[in-house]
Amino acid sequence: MPSTAEILKSYYDALYERFGPQHWWPGETPFEVAVGAVLTQNTNWRNVEKAIGNLKREGLLDPVSLHAVPRERLAELIRPAGYYNIKADRLHNLLTVIVNDCAADVDIFLSGAVDELRQRLVSIRGVGLETADSIILYAAGKPTFVVDTYTFRMAVRHGLVFEDASYDDMKSLFENSLPADTQLFNEYHALIVRLGKEFCKKRAVCSGCPLEPFPHTVEETV
Ligand code: SF4
């Protein structure tokens, strides 16, 4: 019987072989990636790109300029990303920490060990675990595994976790089974998102899926 580490490695190989490199995360700077991580909650990336495009066009994509934008104006600029009032608040909370606690220096904000940085991020109102881990992995370039709905869906269907597994249970499953390699974690999460969008949807499309050869059970309600 293969170990969890062997199973997860086999999944990675199958996904990579089918999909190839995903080139995540689209963003020119760590700051842009962090902003994108806040904006991408509950929307698709195309909408985030429009919102970030608005900020760029206005010359606001730096911590000091963006922090100084009145909340209503910020909400208007990021409107394409949806939930724009909530996201404007979350973004402002993040910017306040960068500007007031880190001298507006994104490198300082993203410094420190993974656990320390994660603690700093989740203590910001509106920054949840997935957003925090996305910022750590894709903006800071440090090894933390990002978990999302797609990860849960695949892992439950493949019997790797129970349905009531917590975010940190799922994160530990991957981190305890794989080497703490930033590039591996980067690619693996991106591949799972691709899998979830194309095959492991709410209504699973197992036929032709790269993980079809591995044991799985589909409950359509997952
Ligand atoms: S084989 Fe089915 S259950 Fe497994 S990942 Fe693919 S779509 Fe999801």
Walk me through this protein's architecture:
- This protein is mainly α and 222 residues long.
- The chain has two domains: 4-23 and 146-198; 30-139, Endonuclease III, domain 1.
- 58% of the residues lie in helices and 0% in strands.
- It is built from twelve helices and no strands.
- It has helices at 4-19, 30-39, 45-57, 63-68, 71-77, 84-101, 106-109, 114-122, 129-139, 149-157, 167-175, 182-198.
- Helix 1 (4-19) crosses helix 12 (182-198) and helix 8 crosses helix 9.
- The longest helix is centred in the middle third of the chain and has 18 residues, at 84-101.
- The radius of gyration is 18 Å and the shape is globular.
- The chain starts with a helix and ends in a 24-residue tail after the last helix.
- The chain binds iron/sulfur cluster (SF4).
- Iron/sulfur cluster binds next to helix 10.
Give a short synopsis of this structure:
The protein is an all-alpha fold and 222 residues long.
Our Rg estimate from Cα atoms comes to 18 Å
Query: What's the CATH H-level homologous superfamily of the largest domain?
Result: Hypothetical protein, domain 2
Described by strand count, sense and barrel closure, the largest sheet is:
none
Give average pLDDT, whole number: 96
- Give the H and E element order: HHHHHHHHHHHH
Structural class: mainly alpha
Question: Under CATH, the topology of the largest domain is which?
Answer: Endonuclease III, domain 1
Distinct compounds present: iron/sulfur cluster
Count of helical stretches: 12
The top level CATH class name of the largest domain: Mainly Alpha
Tell me how many strands there are: 0
Low-pLDDT ranges:
none
Q: Quickly give the CATH architecture of the largest domain.
A: Orthogonal Bundle
Summarize the amount of helix as a percent range.
55-70%
Number of domains: 2
Shape summary: globular
Distance between the amino and carboxyl termini: 26 Å
